[in-house]
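Let's inspect a concrete specimen:
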Amino acid sequence: MEIRSVNGRFLDLKWRLPLFLRAQEAALERVVREYVARGRLEIHLDFSPKRTDLWRANLNRGLANAMLDEMEGMAGNAVCPSSRT
């Protein structure tokens, strides 16, 4: 974690979060606002798990196939504009 601050009249938060934490930004902001009233804060959180089993990804194959089917259907229905010469 890295936090940088500059004095300012109002509270201005800038976040750099891992993708899996971006949905929690509002909750994290509420916590920061409990302790900080003003200034510009740049907060950078980085996450690197030490356990290799946490790096494992799971793919919902049914959902992925449904999404691919939808994209194929959209591509088949797409109308390409004629090129103008």
In short: The longest strand covers residues 11-16. The radius of gyration is 22 Å. The chain has a mean pLDDT of 87.
